[in-house]
């Protein structure tokens, strides 16, 4: 069975298992590790459960900090709303004894079946590594791709691991890159978001069912000249299997986070991301930022398309809200041919803003703000909508 057929089959299974449910409800994970459903239009919640956790050592407790972005300290298996997020065991002396990537299964039955409320410890990271220094992405099939550093006196080596969702098997990949501590003229990875595309759509899967050598992992890099950072940054895409550089784009919108566009699955073989950017007015900034200096904006990133690699779809607001950046963009649509059912969402100033999006051949070409929920009084670690 080829890659696209399996991908569509996963979607069909999701429809069958969620038939009759409110698929518009978002799965929310909070800092006190409550899993619940949230209506993104009205802001009301339902189906709150407390997932089971491994017992920490005496004098220690699990903490789920509000840090990192999507593709950094959290990621999702969007077809079935499975959340992956980081937790830490913090002891009375302030020492972090454990840093763990958790997997919380999708909402098919977790409201009524306690087995689905278990937070499964999928992968342990070195607890001495700051959360800001890691990245993780679901690879569109059965694994997480995790970037984590090894520190040396002259810089940082960023290693790549592929972690199986099913048996937690860890498969080392080629190193992502080496970041020098200092240099006369070089580029280095910036801590923050990452995102993984769906590859060429026709690559052959390896036995562990990963997305293959054609899948490209995107991060942000900064230009360092004699110890001084020179803007703008660049959006860099590399194969996480081969380390081959595939994309190098000037980041004219100060990209803060990216989310892969799932709407193109059956209509186009292009990869597109929606994300959060911050407008500016320097000469290298996007021309559509002219009247939006320092505003958060909804952006589109379309790799390999020289005419519109980066574009601004909508203004979000003039307050740089860290929660907007941390949670990024979520999507929702029903399985129909009606484009009016397609939406993108951002969390801004404690409300969820919905954007109606217009698609052409599976690609998002415009977005218009359509609703804003009442205030949501939750500290959200991770959210996912499914589709």
Could you describe the 3D structure shown?
This protein is mainly β and 387 residues long. Among the domains are: 120 residues, no CATH class; 119 residues, no CATH class. It is built from two helices and 27 strands. Strands 4, 5, 6, 7 and 8 form a five-stranded antiparallel β-sheet that branches. A hairpin with a 4-residue loop joins β6 and β7. The protein starts with a helix and ends with a strand.
Give me the secondary-structure topology.
Layout: H1 3-18, E1 26-30, E2 35-38, E3 45-49, E4 60-63, E5 74-77, E6 82-91, E7 96-104, E8 119-125, E9 135-138, E10 143-152, E11 155-164, E12 170-172, E13 177-180, E14 185-189, E15 195-196, E16 216-225, E17 228-239, E18 245-250, E19 257-260, E20 273-278, E21 296-301, E22 310-317, H2 322-327, E23 330-332, E24 343-348, E25 351-360, E26 363-372, E27 380-384
Antiparallel strand pairs: 1-2, 1-27, 2-3, 4-6, 5-6, 6-7, 7-8, 9-10, 10-11, 11-12, 11-13, 14-16, 15-16, 16-17, 17-18, 19-20, 20-21, 21-22, 23-24, 24-25, 25-26
């Amino acid at each position: 069975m080829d890659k696209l057929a399996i991908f569509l089959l996963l979607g069909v299974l999701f429809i069958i298992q969620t038939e009759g449910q409110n698929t518009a409800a978002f799965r929310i994970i909070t800092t006190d590790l409550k899993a619940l459903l949230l209506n993104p239009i009205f802001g009301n919640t339902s189906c709150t459960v407390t997932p089971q956790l491994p017992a920490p050592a005496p004098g220690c407790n699990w903490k789920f900090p509000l840090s990192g972005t999507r593709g950094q300290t959290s990621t999702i298996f969007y077809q079935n709303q499975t959340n992956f997020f980081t937790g830490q065991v913090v002891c009375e002396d302030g020492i972090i004894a454990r840093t763990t990537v958790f997997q919380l299964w999708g909402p098919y039955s977790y409201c009524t079946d306690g087995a689905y409320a278990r937070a499964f410890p999928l992968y342990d990271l070195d607890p001495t590594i700051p959360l800001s220094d890691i990245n993780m992405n679901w690879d569109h099939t059965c694994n997480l791709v995790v970037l984590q550093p090894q520190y040396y006196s002259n810089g940082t080596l960023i290693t790549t691991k592929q972690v199986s969702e099913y048996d937690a098997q860890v498969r080392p990949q080629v190193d992502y890159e080496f970041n020098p501590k200092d240099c006369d003229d070089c580029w280095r990875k910036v801590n923050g978001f990452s995102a993984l595309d769906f590859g060429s759509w026709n690559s052959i899967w390896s036995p562990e069912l990963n997305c293959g050598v054609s899948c490209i992992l995107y991060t942000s890099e900064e230009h360092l000249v004699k110890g001084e950072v020179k803007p703008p940054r660049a959006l860099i895409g590399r194969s996480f299997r081969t380390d081959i550089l595939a994309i190098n784009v000037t980041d004219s919108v100060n990209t803060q986070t990216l989310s892969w566009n799932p709407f193109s699955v059956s209509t186009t073989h292009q990869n597109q991301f929606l994300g959060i950017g911050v407008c500016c007015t320097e000469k290298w900034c996007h021309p559509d930022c002219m009247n939006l200096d320092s505003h958060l904006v909804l952006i589109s990133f379309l790799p390999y398309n020289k005419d519109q690699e980066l574009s601004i779809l909508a203004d979000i607001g003039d307050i740089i809200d860290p929660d907007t950046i941390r949670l990024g963009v979520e999507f929702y649509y029903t399985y129909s041919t009606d484009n009016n059912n397609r939406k993108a969402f951002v969390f801004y100033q404690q409300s969820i803003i919905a954007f109606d999006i217009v698609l052409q051949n599976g690609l998002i070409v415009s977005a218009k703000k359509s609703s804003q929920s009442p205030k949501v009084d939750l500290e959200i670690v991770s959210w996912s909508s499914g589709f």
